[in-house]
Each structure stands twice: as structure tokens, then as C-alpha cells.
Amino acid sequence: MLYPFICPTHRQWLTLNIHAATSHYTQCIDTAQYHIEAGCWQSALPFCGSAYETSEIIMTAETQDAISAVINFTHAAILLANGFRQLNMLTERQQVFASSRERLRLELQKSSMDSAAHTALLECYASLDLGYQSGLIHNNTRGDTDVSMQNRTSAYHFH
Questions:
Q1: What gap in Å lies between CA 111 and CA 78, rounded to an integer?
Q2: Are the beta carbons of 28 and 54 closer than 8 angstroms?
């Protein structure tokens, strides 16, 4: 990732305190959503990024429900990618989708996963792949100012 949103000291602390990481994730998502609803993507982006990095810490710890961890990670990735798109940072958007797909691909290789978690992982991977592929189409056919991408990526949000 080009932009680390969590400093190394804070990352280490969150890694050692998963309960605090879960609280931090929730606060970041809520604050990002507040700024997004106000139309302030510049202000939302750091919170989207922090939520994204924190959700990966939580998913790596394997202490939270696997399905929730994967869905939260995917949600944060999509918010961050949408933030980059809103700020016309399309290379960074693609990097978020690519690195998130790779991260979920690694999760899929784990053998200890039950069928419900496996299904959730596949669905999340498909959502990230769709976002990534739409960015490739966007970048290759229409240039960097295609406003219609807003309609395509809004369907990727998890509710």
C-alpha cells in the first residue's frame, strides 16, 4: 500500500490488543461514514484507511468470528477504494482492490475453514474482483474522468 494509515507503534499495539482493535475499527468506520455522508471524501479517507488496516489486523488474529472479520475487511477495502476513486486516485484504488483480493486468496488457502466461512470468503473475493475488474475497464476504455463509475461501485457496499 502506498499510504500507511496506521503508524508502526499503533499497529503493534492494535495487534496485541484485539479488543481495542475491534473498537478502533468500529470508530473508524463510523467516522468515515459520517464524513462520506457529508460529502467530505478527503476527510473520510484517513478513517477508511485506518479501518482497512485495522480490519486486516483483526482478520489475521483469527480471534473474531471468521465471517464477520472477512466481511469487515471487504467492507473497509471497498470504502477505501471508493474514497480513492472519489479523489481521482485511480492507481491507489486498483492497488487496494488488488492487495485485498490477494489477502483473501491467502485466507482461502487455509484448511481450517468451515463451509459458511468459505462461502463468505468466496463472495467477498468476488466483490473485490468485480471492483478490480471494473477499474481495469474504466482505466482502459474511458479515461480517468468517467463519472458513471459511481453507479457501478455503489453496488459493492455491504449492508
A1: 26
A2: yes
Pick from 75, 60, 71, 63: nearest CA to 29: 75
The Cβ of residue 104 has, within 10 Å, a number of other Cβ atoms equal to: 22
State the Cα–Cα distance between residues 113 and 130, nearest whole angstrom: 24
Start-to-end Cα distance in the chain: 26
| pLDDT surpassing 90 at residue 1 | no
How far is 107 from 111, CA to CA, in rounded Å? 9
- What pLDDT digit, counting tens, does each position of 103-113 carry? 999 988 876 77
Residue found by looking up cell 468515515 in the block: 32
Residue in the block written with cell 482492490 = 97
CA-CA distance, 53 to 32, in Å (whole number)? Answer: 14
**Residue where the block lists cell 508502526:** 8
Separation CA 90–CA 98 (nearest Å): 12
d(CA 72, CA 29): 10
DSSP H helices, the chain, are 8-16, 18-37, 41-61, 66-86, 90-108, 115-141, 149-153
How far apart are the C-alpha atoms of 31 and 94, rounded to whole Å? 24
Question: pTM to 2 decimals?
Answer: 0.82
